[in-house]
Amino acid sequence: MPILGPLGRRPAGTMLTALTVLATAWLSPAAATPVSDSPTRTATTSDVWSVAAPQGNKDQLTADVVRDDATGALTLTVRRGADEVLPGSPLGLRTKGADLTRGLDVLGRDDRSVREQYEMTTGKQRRVNSPMTESRFALRGDGGVRMDLVVRVARDGVAFRYELPDSEGTVVTGEASGYRLPADAPAWLLPHTSWYEEVRGETTAGGAAADDYGYPALFEVAADDYVLLTESGMDSTYPGSKLAHAAGSGAYDVALAEAEVVSPGDLATPWRTAIVGDLATVTESTLVSDLAPDAGFSDTSWIRPGTVSWSWLVEHDSPRDFERQKDYVDYAAAHGWEYTLVDEGWSREWVPELVRYARTKGVDILLWFRWWEVDAPEEMDTVFGELNDWGVKGVKVDFMNSGGGEPEGVGRHAWYEDVLAATAEHKLLVNFHGATLPKGLQRTWPHLMTYEAVRGHEYYSFNQPLTPTYNTMLPFTRNVVGSADVTPGTFSMTNRTHSDAHELALPVVYESGLQHPADSPETYATLPEAERVLDQLPTVWDETRYLGGRPGDDAVLARRAGDRWFVGGIHAGAAGTAEVDLGRLGADDGERLLVELVTDGADGLARETRRVDGDARLTVPVAENGGFVAQVCAAERGRTTCDEPVRTTPATGLAITPDASTAAPGDEIEVTGRFAAADGESATLRNVTLGARPRAGWTAAGEDVTRPALQPGQALSGSWKVRVPESAEPGYVDVPVVAEYRAPGAGPAEPRVHVEQAVRVLVAPPVPQGDAHVGDLHLLTASNGWGPVEIDTSVGDNGAGDGAPLTIGGTTYAKGLGAHAPSRVTVYLGGACTSFTAQVGVDDEVGDRGSVGFRVLGDGTELTTTGTLRGTDAAQPVSADVTGVGLLTLEVADGGDGISYDHADWADPKVTCG
Predict the structure, then answer these.
(1) At 57, is the pLDDT very low, low, confident or very high (cuts 50, 70, 90)?
(2) Quick check: helix, strand or coil at residue 688?
(3) pLDDT tens figures, 816-868
(4) At what angle do helices 322-334 and 351-360 cross, to 10 degrees?
(5) Phi and psi for 283 in degrees, rounded to 5?
(6) What are the residues whose beta carbons fall under 8 Å from the beta carbon of 872, sequence distance 6 or more?
(7) CATH number of 35's domain
């Protein structure tokens, strides 16, 4: 791999000698206390105040706050050792009542030591201990208005923010904050969008086009001196920001996403954050989470990061297919992966059954949502409560970059906080897609597993493949500030230009609390070496170390989980070799290491095993646009592999009776269950319980049955009487019978395996009378391919109530159902009706587009069907004899060409009843 040659160091500014002297005069850390309007606390006769990082070494960071005597404006200069890495960057903000960018008096200064000690559930480092020095400068500006400037300096960067102590409130109209970089500094920049999915490119600070750029922005300001700019400590009191740049200069100014920030009381801005150091310091930095508020809750025992099987990328329509999702569950179960994500298209009709199927195999289900489906607190409570009932363990929430409002405004940040609080209450993991950038929330909300905010592998399916050069930039930019859901592992993408070993290394190089290998079970089955690596990879890391590389060229990172290191290397360019310094992994003196290396071979992925000294430099062959993966562990006597056994869940069976029942409020249903290991299983199940688990308001008479150990061939049986509450609403209710046990080899902190079957109870609504419109009956099920099923209007768009009058072939109908393929609606007839009639067709709102087919079923048996109807067709009458039918189901399927524009109307649908 190419190694970056040294650049000539740029000379420090002319103030360097004076600043070096002044740096010795910064105050000893002391507890911060309020500063009065009189400058009496600390003498400030000089125009320069220095704040130094706690660690004193040749690369110690120092921040200098400089006041211009002529203008009263403040700037910030950052030095790394003797090098000035961030010169004269402006400070200050403006409010409707005052200009706090100039004419500022420094009233006093408080210093203190800050030590951030915390544990993460995700990220590059599980346990963090970060000392910092903090200085608070009390300022007085225009009209006597007070503002505090707070500066923190750590070993890996400098951050500042403003605090406005105004209990009567204020309106911020902008910041003077900005950064001044050398114009010739190499820069890796991302054109700003609120979802951060543009292509990052290499340029220079001054050569970049005039534009707004998104965080994080990386600059190489001198040889081995890098600055990564971002923000941290976001909350709903302040909007996000971006970097506004005018061409031809190294100036990058903070521009807020909203023109005004209205605060009813005291206000603290986010931390303007500069991670500073060599590439090892930048890549390994935890500064963004260090600056964030600590976790809002302490019980994280339910939070389980993990590997996720996911079908959408290679099979866009498969999330609609229950049977295909079971294939992905089966694959996850066989390989010890924790989750299956069901993306866009899932149906609430079959998700509960899929959850039960998956949990029996030790796999949990995650579900995809559009953010506006859980927009309001009452929606969150309803939806997340239902997911709890089903046993779903997490949500992927998408499209926060759209849907109305400023995607990085205070309103959207308030939504982020609300949804994180609601999911924490319901113990659901979170994956944000179509989202803003990580800015510290993963520390504050430990169940926030990952973000998108990156151009990930989904772009292969849009025929916009990721380049090897782009891939090597992400570890030094986007992934520095938080988990990145890039969804690597797409070996089947034919437009990929990098090698298989490069692709296999990405889940090591890219950190994410939920890692989504994004290919099919059938593809992985042809790549046994890839399967072996993916089955071993953790998603939680004890520490991360940079081993080499430069953005755009190479990236080699090592991550440790327990006593094993995983090394991933990716390369852009011609074939060559990589030198990997294993000494950075910290082996004891004289320790020998076992290294299992996977590279690009002549016939695909190739594995070799080496035994080396703990301080060895490993030479690894790298193909063109190639890569490698290494697993490293102690070379103990008799140890032939670093692999740990892949734990799978024993096969079991739970039989219940009845499987379905129809009941009225107040009725009682007798339920029985029998649980045993499947034939052929030899493992003993520990701490086994079996019991009925009806939903709140329903009761089950009868105790759980338990057994400390269930041997092969033994069974556990029980029976319970379940009572339907008098207040039960019409509809389907699942009454679960649950067996739980501790799997062989499971530790005490691991969740028990959950095996569940459910009695499907229909709490019957009243039977229809006379001629009844279907839309006026209670809809027992109503699923749609886009948006909700609408009553008496067309389906319209994705929201509820956004349809127009039902119109087919120019004829408008007052009553009916607006649907979108695929759709399924079920109503209860209770054997009381004799006929069904309707006019059906594609709604005029899609013009001549759309193609659908209609189908009528009685108790699951097809009664009548249409051929394919198109937007150019007139309404077609349908009728069916429904004598004796208990459940009437109306289905709409697409016409075989996808579901776009498939707006289907059941116009004037009626049943005739006794």
Answers:
(1) confident
(2) strand
(3) 999 999 999 999 999 999 999 999 999 999 999 999 999 999 999 999 999 99
(4) 20
(5) -65, -35
(6) 848
(7) 2.70.98.10
508 and 657 both lie in a single domain: no
Q: Are residues 665 and 585 in the same domain?
A: no
Q: Quote the CA–CA distance of 321 and 318 in Å, as a whole number.
A: 5
Give me the domain span that covers residue 254.
16-290
Say if 559 falls within a structural domain. yes
* Phi, psi (degrees; rounded to nearest 5) at 377: -55, -40
Which candidate, 249, 247, 303, 240, places its Cα nearest to that of 272?
A: 240
Rounded to whole angstroms, what are the CA distances from 217 to 228, 245, 402? 5, 12, 24
Give the pairing type, strands 339-342 and 364-370. Answer: parallel
Same domain, yes or no, for 257 and 189?
yes
Domain total of the chain: 4
What pTM does this model have? Answer: 0.89
- CA separation for the pair 741, 750 (Å, rounded): 11
The fraction of the chain above a pLDDT of 90, given in percent, is: 90
CA angle 632, 634, 636 (to 5 degrees): 135
In this predicted structure, the answer to whether residue 198 has a pLDDT above a threshold of 80 is yes
pLDDT recorded at residue 798: 82
Predicted confidence (pLDDT) at residue 32 exceeds the cutoff of 90 = no
Average pLDDT over residues 323-345: 97
Are residues 783 and 685 located together in one domain of the fold? no
SS3 360: helix
Domain containing 828 — which CATH number?
2.60.120.1060
Q: What is the identity of the amino acid at 247?
A: A
Question: What is the predicted pLDDT for the residue at 608?
Answer: 97
- Pair (338, 457) in one structural domain: yes
**pLDDT band for position 36 (50/70/90)?**
very low
Looking at residue 859, its amino acid is D
Q: Is residue 11 domain-resident? A: no
pLDDT number for residue 5: 25
7 belongs to a structural domain: no
Q: Is the pLDDT score of 169 beyond 60?
A: yes
Is position 295 within any domain? no
Inter-residue contact 453 to 438 (CB < 8 Å)? yes
| Cα separation, 3 vs 24, whole angstroms | 37
Alpha-carbon radius of gyration of the chain: 31
User: Is residue 131 over pLDDT 80?
Assistant: yes
Q: Which residues are catalytic?
A: 398, 458
Answer whether residue 795 shows pLDDT above 70: yes
Which segments of 361-513 does DSSP mark as H helices, in order? 377-390, 410-425, 441-444, 468-473, 500-509
